[in-house]
Amino acid sequence: MIVDTLFRRARNAGAPVSDPVLTMADPTGWGVNLVGGTPSPDSALKLSAVFRAVDGISNSVAKLPLYLMDGVTRERVTDHPVLPLLTIRPNELMTAATFKKMLETERLLTGNGYAYIVRDSVTLEPVELIPLQNELVNPWLDSAGALWYMVRMPRTGRVYKLPPADVLHFKGFSRDGIEGISVLRYAAEVILTGRQAQQYEMNYYAKGTQVPGVLTTETDLSKPNRDAIREEWERIHSGADNAFRVAVLDLGTKYQPIGITNKDSQFIESKGVTVEDISRFFAMPLYKLNAGKQSYSSNEQNAIEYVNDTLMPVLTQYEQEYTYKLLFESERRQNLRIRVNQNAELRGDLAARANWYKVMREIGPYSVNDVRALEDLPDVPGGDTRNASLNYIPLERFDELSVARNKGGEKT
Fold this sequence. Notes:
The protein is an alpha+beta fold. It folds into three domains: 39-206 and 261-347, no CATH class; 212-259; 349-411, no CATH class. Helix content is 43%, strand content 14%. It is built from 14 helices and twelve strands. The protein has helices at residues 2-9, 41-45, 48-63, 83-87, 96-110, 183-186, 188-207, 223-237, 262-282, 296-326, 329-333, 350-363, 368-374, 398-408; strands at residues 16-17, 66-70, 76-77, 112-119, 126-132, 137-141, 147-152, 159-162, 167-171, 213-216, 254-257, 336-340. Strand 6 (137-141) and strand 7 (147-152) form a beta hairpin. Helix 3 (48-63) crosses helix 5, helix 3 (48-63) runs parallel beside helix 9 and helix 7 packs antiparallel against helix 9 (262-282). The chain is flat and about 110 Å long.
């Protein structure tokens, strides 16, 4: 496993410590990672709306490019050793996109996404980033109030004590600022209800009689005979493969059809309510879950709100955690910052993007090369020049320029 490989390679990891003993006198660690009535991540992902929400958000985080910039001049830095870890290969087994997707998936499903920072033993520069599954990590406060991360080896069971500087930690909703809380905990009732509806539907199609009703006869039947008739009826008419088969009755047997119950007829409607609730819990627009009313204009606005309300808070946390733990303090003092380019999420609408570039080009913030950089195109000669319209003037100079223009129109 990758975690085993990481600890065999790492030379600066904390020494292994003995497993904590839980007693009534020392209950430290009690309740950690207990889910109670919370559905497990694997169980929750079997609900299509949950899978789509988690997959969609994690894909968005995975595909957005990162870059390093000077926070004052906003100039991009292209030769920093940490960049290849975030943009090409964080470790020997994963691409950068796979790494980011795994972290975000863990954060969404468990409330916490962890990654171990493997550092050079001499320079202390990050050389690898290894994702850690939530169940292997336990944040722990010592008696002095210092935070440590207790990381358990999955194969040997040994526990390592790591300082916060060596662990990237991305949190979900948190009440203490130390550990995140899984969305699944708060959405447990909705997800469990959805799973029950899903199971009900499976049973309905797998076991439901396609000619629902009651068989009656005036003959007094013993229990073995009743069971035999029932089994034979179900064998011939139950299941999707036997739908619409003609029933042949004998010995005075009569069939009385029974209409579908209100519970059966409304369960599809309840599924729609479940999808809406899941949409709210994950802050995922309904159209991205292939639900709700679909229209181009509303979906375009929802896409903007998705970036601003769902992705931006998450990406801000990623930016701050990467900056604080992957850059040295001296570099942060030089205003170096790791940023995520959120424009990539809004590239879908060509007309809107072209209009945006046109406006930004005409009022001066963007040059031709700025636009080309956002489109991943190389610079062109003369493309750094910025233009602005002379039709706009400072208000304080309006009278002066107005008089000058009017005088220029006077006949002499």
